[in-house]
Design goal:
Number of strands: 12
Number of helices: 13
Strand order of the largest sheet: 5-4-1-6-7-12-11-8-9-10
Order of helices and strands: EHEHHEHEHEHEHEEHHHEHEHEHE
Radius of gyration: 19 Å
CATH superfamily of the largest domain: HAD superfamily/HAD-like
Number of domains: 2
Shape: globular
Largest sheet: 10 strands, mixed
Structural class: alpha/beta
CATH architecture of the largest domain: 3-Layer(aba) Sandwich
Strand content: 15-25%
CATH class of the largest domain: Alpha Beta
């Protein structure tokens, strides 16, 4: 029987999301002409034996891979990058240096890589390229643009993958957010009170939350997943969010109904390995403290 990704949690990730290639990227961005990538390729080749520093999503990836053991390979991480194959050599050298069990990679030398998400059966795509992320979301794949300037994850919970999600337009549809933006807070709260027993439609990241829930149930006792819903909702709009998760038969470990308060300091205390939100203002607040990624979904991202 050939290799298969069936039943695995598959994370497709760009090299800039996994490693800190910001200095190298500046060389690429300052290039000119049809061969603007030549200086970048040379720099990566010159640094071939210099392991890259961890990037924004490094902690989450390292911990997810720890769900694999001799009994089962439950998680697959694949590099999906606009890098050229030569630069891919340094990516895999850095992977080996950090003892990450990543064996697969697709390098497209500037062309759109997202079309490979379907054969990869990806549950998540992380990239520093917002156009690729938007295309992935349009295809139905949970995807986020990493804030490459974001703080790196702390290491106070080595045996937990800690992931935080916004609610509306991320885990849930943007139905309620549209009402809030068009009609204001009182109308939004009344709408959610009236529909408290009617589950919200799924947002782009429900499939990832469901996959993480399955991984938690099937996984190893040496590693667990801890999730948090961090939302600007407050009472009375809280009930519909909770009942929606109950209807999906998916549990989260923590819920924060912040009523519009800045999310950054609350996330600093939760210490996630990654946080997903659809609003750039929340991402900027969060990125001061934790790894963060923008989900270009819903009414806030026309």
């Amino acid at each position: 029987m050939g290799a298969s990704l069936d039943g695995k949690l598959v994370v497709a990730i760009s090299s800039r999301a996994l490693f800190d290639f910001e200095e190298e990227n500046k060389v690429f961005e300052h290039g000119h002409g049809p061969h603007k990538d030549r200086a970048y390729m040379k720099l990566q080749l010159d640094k071939l034996d210099e392991p890259a520093k961890p990037g924004v999503a490094f902690s989450m990836v390292r911990k997810l891979l720890a769900f694999n053991d001799s009994d089962a390979q439950r998680v697959e991480v694949v590099i999906l990058s606009r890098n050229d194959p030569v630069s891919g050599l340094r990516v895999f050298r850095s992977i080996k240096s950090d003892d990450l069990k990543i064996e697969r990679g697709v390098f497209t030398r500037g062309r759109e890589p997202y079309k490979y998400l379907t054969p990869l059966q990806a549950n998540l795509f992380l990239s520093a390229n917002p156009d690729d992320v938007r295309a992935a979301l349009k295809m139905g794949c949970p995807a986020a643009t990493v804030a490459t300037h974001a703080a790196r994850a702390q290491d106070n919970y080595p045996n937990e993958v800690r992931i935080a999600f916004d609610g509306d337009a991320v885990l849930f549809s943007d139905e309620a957010e549209r009402i809030y933006q068009s009609s204001g807070l009182p109308v939004f709260q009344q709408h959610e009170r009236d529909k408290a027993h009617q589950p919200l439609l799924a947002g782009p990241f429900k499939p990832l939350l469901a996959a993480l829930h399955r991984l938690q149930q099937e996984g190893t006792p040496n590693m667990r997943i801890r999730t948090a819903l961090v939302t600007a909702r407050s009472a009375p709009a809280h009930e519909r969010a909770i009942r929606t998760l109950m209807d999906w038969n998916i549990e989260v470990d923590e819920v924060m109904f912040l009523g519009g308060l800045p999310k950054g300091e609350f996330l600093r205390e939760f210490e996630p390995d990654f946080f997903f939100d659809d609003q750039t203002g929340h991402i900027e607040s969060a990125a001061q403290h934790v790894p963060s990624g923008h989900v270009a979904s819903g009414v806030s991202n026309p």
